[in-house]
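Practice problem 4.
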């Protein structure tokens, strides 16, 4: 399995992955978010990554240096050395096999190499499988918030 920086040719597959999980396992995503435009924006900023298994893209994720979560006041590290991961998706038919955990772990390892001190993310309270995955990776719930029309746990991994 390989986590790599996405290329323009991957946008269609990433967009299809986003759409494939709408309504699955308590996902809070809908037809308006995330979109191909979100993937293209992430790609343009070198923030979009894909997880490949046997040459097939089975997952995607984006990383932000200074994302929408920076303004939340409960982060332990919020000094510019943190990164935010978002739009984490695993193909519907590949869910439940531990691939999200593998992808996020690979992301953390990559961020360690880049000198990051912490990783932030929001996990929808309505998605217990995602919350369980992040807790198993030693993310800590540092707060709760209502954003984008949903209730979330704010989770942080201290490197």
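Answer key:
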């Amino acid at each position: 399995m390989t986590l790599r920086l996405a290329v323009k040719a991957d946008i269609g597959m990433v967009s299809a992955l986003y759409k494939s999980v709408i309504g699955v396992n308590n996902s809070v995503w809908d037809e308006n978010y995330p979109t191909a435009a979100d993937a293209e924006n992430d790609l343009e900023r070198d923030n979009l990554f894909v997880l490949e298994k046997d040459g097939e893209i089975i997952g995607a994720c984006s990383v932000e240096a200074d994302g929408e979560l920076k303004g939340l006041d409960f982060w332990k590290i919020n000094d510019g050395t943190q990164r935010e991961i978002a739009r984490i998706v695993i193909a519907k038919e590949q869910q439940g096999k531990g691939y999200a955990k593998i992808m996020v772990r690979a992301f953390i390892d990559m961020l360690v190499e880049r000198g990051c001190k912490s990783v932030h993310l929001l996990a929808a309270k309505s998605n217990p499988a995602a919350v369980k995955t992040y807790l198993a990776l030693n993310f800590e719930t540092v707060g709760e918030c209502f954003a984008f029309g949903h209730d979330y746990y704010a989770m942080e991994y201290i490197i």
